[in-house]
Design a protein that fits this description.
homodimer, 389 residues, alpha+beta, Creatine Amidinohydrolase, Chain A, domain 1, Creatine Amidinohydrolase, five-stranded antiparallel sheet, 19 strands
């Protein structure tokens, strides 16, 4: 890994009149330095960055490609470093969606000769377009989703509970070296790493932040994800199984039926499959994201599911998917408000679901990479409605 | 659950001249309202609180004991609510260790007639003393640790990898309804929910924030926790297995040997066991925490392990343990800088470890509740060095 990521950030900083940036968030640090240890990275608008190490210096020195590694990272040290770079005023970028108020106030006082500005939008915009090595790791995660899917086909039985299935998936996934943590940038959201496993009437209870098939969880302390509900013959079961492999995520979902699918289940699933195929067929470089969202909404209406697409009533997600990478939920948001073109090497989770009260939900989600002429699905699992148990 | 937790917070607020507080962090919300859904809680210094619901209102209305539940939560609505409470200026408490800079700046602008102050120290001080129902849940978590320990005794074998053992624990623990997420208040720290499983030479590599037996993880993207290292005859294996059961944590650690323990391993373990027994014997209501820390340090020196207690060289934890509850790492910190008395119904993780380069580590950690005359260990697992495989 070379310095080109930092150089690209510096280009964006100069275009935005940002004199320097202080990066402290572990995913952003990992992206720019190769280490996610507790560090503060000082990036001048031009010239070499300095990496201050708060902990685990031995690890940092073997992990990073940054040449100037120093011990410490207090505001005083960071200020001295900026002065040595010849930057004694101007706009200083910080991660405004990460730095907490107590730290923000310390930084504001220490850097009173500068004005502070949120630099996360630049960082996340850069991270939106993936490099080949990053795409390989998302593929690695997607292949492990295939293992999860095979495990579900093999083990899901009537009488088993949602959390028991979670345990079976965890056993396989953790042994295959997926991380036991999903990285989410929001300060107030967490997801279960063995998947959001949801069945029966839980399919149309929408809890927490995400307007999706959330499940109800085990208690109000974490009221989403798998519950102790046991699968019954005839149940629909949705498994939304994001994975983190060596720091990179995939996000895939399949829908199952316990026993034989009813005609109605087949019909509703057929519609969501048709919709997802339609959506994927629209995605290629140079096409507007908001325009594709509008086309998909039109298709939903043609299919007759406009009341249930991505939720129902007041609880509806207004999106078709999102970027995935070092965090599970990244730019771009695939929505009607994103006036931005699809680009080669974006990695996206494209998700179509119908959530229907008193019926259940069908949900198909694929992680794809955008190539020259369209998008490629990274999982090799079939995209059918699966009869299991 | 009644309003007494809010009334206690209001007492502390009045003593600190805080006019009102806005609570948004999910653990704090859960503590004061019974729901951890996306909400903003407005607490006046006296009188009834108002709970604003940003998402999942149906869930909130069944979960909370707050009577005044309203839809929304924008700064404008919060401001209106404060005015209706008759509070149009004064000190406004926010969680300064949680609220991110972008949100802080919005709140500062919206509440320009108030001065903002970090209220988390009050909240965390209140949460330090547990109620009977909370202690029961920590016991529930501790009993599940016993299941993890039994699983280790039954399954750990030479040739198995650290992550494979993690998968086995996950299968058992998730099926027994532990949460798949550990709640940590720091904005930049995450831990694997199936435990920090560390063996052989990994035992003396100290990575990340925590000065403890961290392991090296699977990649620099998350360089702590279980790795793909396979257990060998003669290895020491430390399993630090914090658990989250219905929102409440336990934190326990045991040390194992693959095959027969050597005399040296037995000797070092014997010392850590003696130290931990000594530490636990000191803890009872009315005794100073910093004084106990000093006594323990003196005992370490008597035992001859002063170079290795809680780490070695520059990488040493200066603490004997910490509170546990709705978050894994709570007040009080058991350190030489905590001039505070132990109190009845504190729930604490007490942890003694020696980390010795080129030897390994021995680590014994117990979650205890402080009762009238001393402390009670909540796990029923033996506290020995276990020969396995």
């Amino acid at each position: 890994m070379s310095k080109h990521r930092i150089q690209k950030l510096q280009e964006m900083m100069r275009a935005d009149n940002i004199s320097a940036a202080i990066i402290i968030q572990p995913r952003d640090l990992y992206y720019y330095t190769g280490t996610s240890q507790p560090c503060n990275l000082v990036v001048p608008h031009t010239g070499d960055p300095v990496l201050f190490v708060r902990r685990a210096e031995d690890f940092v020195r073997t992990e990073t490609w940054i040449e100037d590694v120093q011990t410490g990272g207090s505001p005083k040290q960071l200020l001295k470093s900026l002065h040595e770079m010849g930057i004694s005023s101007g706009v200083l970028g910080i991660e405004g969606d990460i730095v907490v108020a107590n730290l923000y106030l310390k930084l504001r006082d220490a850097f009173s000769d500068y004005s502070l500005k949120d630099i996360s939008p630049l960082v996340l915009t850069q991270r939106m377009i993936k490099e080949p090595g990053e795409i390989e790791l998302v593929k690695g995660a997607s292949h492990r989703f295939d293992l999860a899917h095979e495990t579900i086909l093999r083990t899901l039985r009537p009488g088993m509970s949602e959390v028991e299935l979670g345990g079976r998936l965890a056993e396989v996934l953790f042994a295959h070296e997926t991380e036991q943590v999903l990285f989410i940038r929001r300060w107030d959201d967490w997801l279960q790493p063995a998947g959001t496993i949801v069945s029966g009437e839980n399919l149309y209870q929408i809890s927490g932040h995400a307007m999706t098939v959330t499940g109800v969880g085990l208690s109000p302390a974490m009221p989403w994800g798998p519950s102790s509900r046991r699968f019954k013959k005839g149940d629909l079961v949705v498994v939304d199984n994001p994975l983190n492999y060596r720091g990179y995520h995939s996000d895939n979902t399949r829908t199952y039926v316990v026993g034989k699918a009813s005609n109605r289940q087949k019909e509703v699933y057929g519609a969501v499959r048709e919709l997802q195929d339609y959506a994927l067929a629209q995605i290629r470089p140079g096409i507007w994201i908001d325009e594709v969202y509008r086309l998909v909404i039109r298709k939903v209406t043609e299919l007759g599911y406009e009341e249930y697409f991505q939720g129902y009533g007041k609880q509806r997600g207004q999106y078709l998917g999102h970027g995935v990478g070092l965090e599970l939920d990244e730019l771009p948001v695939l929505s009607g408000r994103t006036h931005l073109k699809f680009e080669k090497n974006m990695v996206l989770a494209v998700e179509c679901k119908f959530i229907i009260p008193d019926f259940g939900a069908v949900f198909l989600e694929d992680t794809v990479v955008i190539e020259e002429n369209g998008c490629q699905i990274l999982s090799s699992s079939e995209r059918d409605l699966f009869e299991v148990g």
